[in-house]
Amino acid sequence: MADKDTIIIEKNPPATRFTPPQELKVSAKTLGTKLVYDLPVANLSRSGMLLQCANARQTPPFIENTLLEIEFTTTLRGQPRRIACFGKVVRKFSENQNLHYGVRVIHSDENDQVEWMSLITTFEKAIPAKVLDLD
Question: What is the CATH number of the domain that holds 50?
Answer without folding.
Answer: 2.40.10.220
